[in-house]
Amino acid sequence: MTDSAPRSQPRTPWRAVFGGSIGNLVEWYDWFVYASFATYFAGAFFPKGNDTAQLLNTAGIFAVGFFMRPVGGWLLGRFADRRGRKAALTLTVTLMSASALLIAIAPTYDQVGYFGAFVLLVARLLQGLSVGGEYAASATYLTEASRPGGRGFVSSFQYVSMTAGQLIGLGLQILLQHTMSDDALHSYGWRIPFVVGAVGAAVVFWLRRNLLETEVYTEEDAHQGQERGTIAELLRHRKEAALVIALTMGGTVAYYTYTTYLTKYLSNTAGMSKSDASLVSFCALFLFMLLQPLAGSLSDRIGRRPLLITFGIGSMLCTVPIMTALSHADSFAGALLLSLAALVIVTGYTSINAVVKAELFPTHVRALGVALPYALANALFGGTAEYVALWFKKGGAESGYYWYVSACAAVSLVVYLTMRETRDAALSRGRADDPAAPGKQRTTAV
């Protein structure tokens, strides 16, 4: 970075990367621990006597979070476009901390009746809002804070942090299960991961308070002040918004299939023990996390479309054979290799999907343009993936789900084949962001 760098740009590369992406870790940690610890706290908020009813009630509250994500995408995407990326990143992490703390201190049914369940519901509403805004705020910040030739690499850390959050949540669950009795976990132990989540979010808040606004955003601070982040302005870019939904469709279904649903699939269908299935998922996710920066860096060299097309073709052609083979996996090594093969294919989407979406929109509507269409697609396809899979299984046609995943990938593949390349897209007005463009030189870089 030269001495002429504006003060609005992050001072150091990794500070921007860390501050911009770390919130995703806390988001996905919270998302994971709610789902995984529900069996322990379900009885605390609803009348005793029917364990299934208790789990259904907590699952219903969990589902509310998915419905709130588009609302959060709209509200916080608009906020990020009007008030700035740093302000939005700080607000999302504040909502994160509040939601985790509410769950940690929520009173039980025995203490206050259904008021405890109401507190749980409020916490999930806040969490849904936060998740809906965090993705776009993080994607736009990482993309805008990067030098043109390194946007794919930097933005890939969004999924590095998301996966790390799941791994930390899974690791804490394993630790508590081995150090606390089952009765203790049901009594008070389930509160521990939410306390950890609240503290983690508070630390992220402090880190993000020290971030600087992106140069791209501050350059256009006076542009279209009343139109920034509005639905009316987004509708002027409805083609790009539709593109975000379509290119997300196949990727989000595949991602949820091989991450959140994988452990249940290996246990319920392949017949592996829950401990072995969890270990397969942990190892596969860890290796998947390490792949993201490599693929993101590759996209900076060869473009975004080749990776997306590779994912689309691979997911369309390989989902059925991989899922079929996984259903008969009878060893840890075999299940791990198959799971990793699937996640290598998915990496073609996850490593660059955030930067591609951000590169489609102009600055004054970029955050909303990423947030709202993505949240809608994620709620419709990603959030329902596990339910669709279990619906097929319950109907005795589990292989139908494999074809469903393949079909979603095929739809997205058509988009990948016809969309424009975004790698060299200009992010700010009057500036060519192509690093090879003659006479163009950025004074700051990540």
From TrEMBL:
Keywords on record: Cell membrane, Membrane, Symport, Transmembrane, Transmembrane helix, Transport
Domain of life: Bacteria
Residue stretches spanning the membrane: 28-46, 58-76, 88-106, 112-136, 157-176, 188-207, 241-258, 278-295, 307-326, 332-356, 368-389, 401-419
InterPro entries in the cross-refs: H+-coupled_symporters (IPR051084), MFS (IPR011701), MFS_dom (IPR020846), MFS_trans_sf (IPR036259), Sugar_transporter_CS (IPR005829)
Primary location recorded for the protein, binned into one broad class: membrane
Cleavable signal peptide: none
Subcellular localization, as worded in the UniProt entry: Cell membrane
Topological type in the membrane: Multi-pass membrane protein
Domain Major facilitator superfamily (MFS) profile per the UniProt entry, residue ranges: 16-423
Membership in a protein family: Belongs to the major facilitator superfamily. Metabolite:H+ Symporter (MHS) family (TC 2.A.1.6) family.
Protein name: MHS family alpha-ketoglutarate permease-like MFS transporter
Organism in which the protein naturally occurs: Streptomyces iranensis
